[in-house]
Design a protein that fits this description.
alpha+beta, five-stranded antiparallel sheet, 4 helices, 161 residues
Length: 161
């Protein structure tokens, strides 16, 4: 059986990074951006889409959608498939296909406009699945926090072929 050399390299590199936690500042949550996200998600509830309201609330999924702090990423930061080059450990620069493999989200505290968000993340598992060449299932743990503590915990899976 011929194995996919790129997939083998992803597996090797991903296994080498398991358990290595990294931090990334995602910047300050702006009410206008959170409202725009809610509108794009099809929300109509005034407290989610009108940042001028006293009872304005940041959409619960907004912070989970953040990948970078400041807009205006350089084209060199992206893979050909549109994902950030460093979003899935072990895949940067390799000719592999990526697909979302599921996400578990646990809300700990509400995200508020004005929160300075820090993301901590680590690859926690690398599993070979399927028959023949198969595919890899990578599991990433993410913790979104603010000065007052943890806001959201996420377990995210990526399929690499």
């Amino acid at each position: 059986m011929v194995r996919n050399a790129a997939l083998e390299l992803v597996e090797e590199q991903a296994l080498a990074s398991v358990g290595r936690w990294e931090r990334r500042s995602l910047g300050v949550v702006r009410a206008e951006d959170a409202a725009e996200f809610a509108r794009a998600a099809g929300e109509r509830a005034p407290h989610l889409v009108d940042p001028a309201r006293v009872d304005f609330t940041v959409h619960p999924m907004y912070v989970v959608s953040l990948l970078r702090g400041a807009p205006g990423a350089d084209a060199a930061e992206f893979r050909p498939d549109g994902m950030y080059r460093d979003e899935v450990p072990g895949t940067d620069g390799l000719d592999v296909r990526l697909m979302a493999g599921g996400q578990d989200v646990r809300w700990v505290d509400a995200v508020r406009a004005g929160d300075l968000i820090e993301l901590r993340r680590a690859l926690t598992a690398v599993e070979r699945k399927g028959v023949g060449e198969g595919f890899l299932l990578l599991t990433m743990e993410k913790v979104y926090g603010a000065e007052r503590g943890t806001l959201v915990e996420v377990t995210e899976r990526f399929i690499v072929r």
